[in-house]
Design a protein that fits this description.
309 residues, mainly alpha, two-stranded antiparallel ribbon, globular
Length: 309
């Protein structure tokens, strides 16, 4: 069955037919016009009267549904700004490591021999270096720093180039580095190379999700993080010997950030999430805040992560 265009008035009728209370129709119409019915209704699953039901729970109000939408937006903003901190840190560290060992001109630091030379990596190395050169060519002229170096020096150092590279490219860059470079970088964060290789694609996934304002709170990634000390220290729930949260949910991302952010940055991250949780809790009537946090994979004692070492 095809999905056809619906006017705002028709969208209101659909929501009411599903049992949603709309006591301020003008507010609902303006909200649906500005925010998009598709994205607003993307939060309806929490409010449905059963897994297969298409009806809202009794007394569900449009304002409560919109409060959930706004909570996810604020949560996404908090996560995104911290992902940008991590992105900047990684770009700085990667460029420092490679420039230190292989030079600061493109003809030097973009040599395939500077990276993993195993036969199974050859194609990936060459493909990624081509992507980097293409991004330099396409994006280089759009940034003042890169154009400054091009016109004044005839080359762009890697610590400037990383500014025009996508986070996805930078994350893949780590996967083709020589093992000694990977180890030195991972050691800065107190991690093993395996952990970095595990974390980076997940970070890139969430970075992309936040940049496109997709639904965040109940996102699940295909990749899972390995069980680490924080799963044990928080005594996270288990089923058949496997942790049921903190593996491929939003809380798994929080655990990754615990490893990569500075202590004061991580403390502020958790405090801001806790504040938005309190704001949402005051607006919920049909839902319990614990239901929302459970969908996010957050345990009740998640704030204890702040002071764990």
């Amino acid at each position: 069955m095809q999905k056809t265009f619906k006017t705002i008035e028709e969208q209101i009728i659909i929501l009411r037919d599903k049992g949603l209370i709309i006591d301020d129709e003008e507010f609902a119409k303006e909200t649906l016009l500005r925010e998009n019915y598709f994205f607003i209704s993307g939060y309806r699953h929490l409010f449905m009267d059963g897994i297969r039901s298409k009806q809202f729970k009794k007394n569900t109000n449009f304002r409560e549904l919109y409060a959930m939408f706004n909570f996810d937006r604020q949560l996404r903003n908090i996560i995104f700004k911290n992902l940008l901190i991590i992105e900047n840190n990684l770009k700085s560290i990667f460029s420092y490591q490679l420039s230190k060992n292989y030079g600061f001109k493109e003809k030097d630091y973009l040599k395939p021999t500077n990276f993993n030379t195993s036969s199974e990596k050859t194609r990936q190395v060459n493909d990624l270096l081509r992507k980097i050169k293409r991004q330099i060519r396409v994006n280089g002229g759009q940034h003042s720093a890169t154009t400054h170096y091009i016109y004044n020096y005839g080359y762009i150092p890697l610590w400037v180039v990383v500014k025009v590279l996508s986070f996805g490219i930078v994350c893949e860059l780590f996967s083709i580095m020589k093992n000694r470079d990977q180890e030195e970088i991972a050691e800065i964060f107190g991690l093993k190379v395996h952990d970095m290789l595990n974390f980076l694609p997940i970070l890139a996934n969430y970075r992309n999700l936040c940049a496109h304002e997709d639904i965040l709170y109940d996102n699940r990634t295909a990749a899972m993080i390995d069980t680490n000390k924080y799963h044990n220290m928080l005594d996270l729930p288990q089923l058949d010997g496997e942790y049921t949260c903190g593996k491929n949910d939003l809380f798994a991302l929080i655990i990754i950030m615990k490893h990569l952010l500075r202590e004061e940055e991580f403390r502020l991250l958790i405090k801001e999430i806790d504040y938005e949780k309190a704001v949402l809790s005051g607006k919920l009537e049909v839902l319990e805040i614990e239901d929302v946090m459970e969908h996010m994979g957050f345990p009740k004692n998640y704030t204890e992560l702040i002071d764990m070492r």
